Amino acid sequence: MIRLLRIPLYLAAITMLAPFYWMVTAAFKPVPELTKNPPSFVPGDPTLDAFYQPDYDPAVRKDELVPGLFQRWDDVPGGFLRFIGNSLFIAAAVTLLALLIAALAAYALTKMDLPGRRVIFVVVVASMMIPWQVTLVPNYLIVRNLEWLNTYQGYIVPALAKAFVVFFLVQYMRSIPDDLIHAARVDGAGEWRIWWRVVMPLMRPALAAMAIFVVLAEWNNFLWPLIIVQDDTMANVPVALSRLNASNAFNPQSMGVIMAASLLTSLPTVIFFLAFQKHFTRGIALSGIKG
Using an 8 Å Cβ cutoff, are 93 and 156 in contact? Predict the structure, then answer.
């Protein structure tokens, strides 16, 4: 009976993994196999042409030969690797700075005698109810007036305020005994030193759990970069993938290139989650989401 109850789980897993499997196999199929009907589920003649086509010559146009992923964007230094580098830098910077800011805010709201801290916390929680799309136009106007369009600071600074991360860390920090904080103050430690030397080491599981959420959100961020990016050299991976798909939407010969780009886009998030899944589970279990 228990095994029968697992059948819906297996079906759900197959449904979620099937597109990923198709993407992986399509990235290594030659062009004739990509357009074959009925399609093949296993590459009969695996190739890396979708990543780099050695026979492609820009001076000689052939319908059966399309440039590989790393042969495109000649006007962008580094090509597709430039977009991956942009995404890695932005995701790392936003994650590090957002977690530090949220940890400071959570410490002030839970361990310091801050006037009006309950009101501040209610405002932070209430801000989670506002759709983020509402802030697109005000944020764009601010970034434009600061002349941050098409810059890294235009990517990073508006993304540093994470209400959910503050809320999560506040719940976790409440589980840290106040006696530790009082003992450190008696020993003469200042608030900065207490936060860094006492509180932050105890926050590692929660910070690791939130790091996964923030990294995935920033890596997959599409709408905001699409609005502020005016030059391909500053595009992140989702924007580059969208433009690649739009320019080759009606060209079945480039399907393998699109699948190759999708594969490289998804790999970092999969690797990151697998590396931190233990911390993620522990952070969720110990967070104590309670009042």
Answer: yes
Taking only the tens place, the pLDDT of each residue in 79-92 is: 999 999 999 999 99
What are the angstrom distances between the C-alpha of 60 and each of 56, 66, 181?
8, 11, 71
Which residues, in sequence order, are CB contacts of 60 under 8 Å at separation 6+? none
* Three-state DSSP class for residue 40: coil
In a 10 Å sphere around its CB, with 0-12 CB exposed, 13-18 middle and 19+ buried, how is residue 115 labelled? Answer: exposed
pLDDT in tens, 108-157: 999 998 888 899 999 999 999 988 888 999 999 999 999 999 999 999 99
C-alpha to C-alpha distance for 152 and 92, rounded to whole angstroms: 12
Cis bond before residue 58 (omega within 30° of 0): no
- pTM, full prediction: 0.87
For the chain, the residue count is 291
- Determine the Cα–Cα distance for residues 62 and 50; give it in Å rounded to an integer: 15
